Amino acid sequence: MGAAAHLGIKQGEYDRAIATLIPHYSELLDGAAAAVDAVARLTPAVVDLGTGSGTLAQRILKVRPKARLIGIDADATMLAAASKRLRGKIQTIEENFEDILIPRCDVVSASFSLHHIPTGRRKAAVYKRCFAALRPGGMFVSADCYLAANKPMQKRHRDAWLAHLKKHHSARKAETFLRTWAREDVYFTLDREVELLKEAGFSVEVTFRRDSFAVIAGLR
């Protein structure tokens, strides 16, 4: 399933619609891109997992204009959108990022793509491959939904997400979005994500968090 279909939106509406679906979307991407500035190399090789339409890659390029971008995504239509957005300044690879060897790089980035990994075992394997792909001093950075550690806080965060959806969609459609994503996506707690990254060898920092959304940076 392509990214647009997964979110229940039309392909051409992806960039406009995504901010109506994900709270703090722009802040999260800005936070993930800003984290890359901690990487010492001025011309970093950046591998963007599940690059989609290239929104995060574009923001990373603003932070590091000399970055060499590689976008991996199984959706050919989204890769075409990324190439158009970045005016060809991105090498694209049409594959599932779980299935290929991650190219040697200085940054591995992701935004709202890793929650499609269904198990902790498989996510741990991806994190270990990210660590192996990174040069010393490199960084893994991901912006996504990460659950709170307890049920009451999880409910508060879900209510906040629902309120955001209701600002842009009907109450019925907002509830449908969350129920559908709960069946299709797998969200781990923030604590568990940090634990998995540390087990892979990373030194981990949470650089941005609001409600159930956060930016996690792992340094090699």
**CATH superfamily name?**
Vaccinia Virus protein VP39
CATH topology: Rossmann fold
CATH architecture: 3-Layer(aba) Sandwich
The percent range for helix content is: 40-55%
Regions with pLDDT < 50 over 5+ consecutive residues? none
How far apart are the first and last residues' alpha carbons, in Å? 33 Å
- Tell me the strand percentage band: 15-25%
pLDDT averaged over residues: 94
Overall, the morphology is globular
Structure explained in plain terms:
The chain is built from nine helices and seven strands; from the N terminus they run αααβαβαββαβαααββ. By secondary structure, the protein is an alpha/beta fold. A seven-stranded mixed β-sheet has the order 3-2-1-4-5-7-6, sandwiched between helices. It is globular, with a radius of gyration of 16 Å.
List keywords for this structure.
9 helices, 7-stranded mixed β-sheet, alpha/beta, globular, Rossmann fold, 7 strands, 220 residues
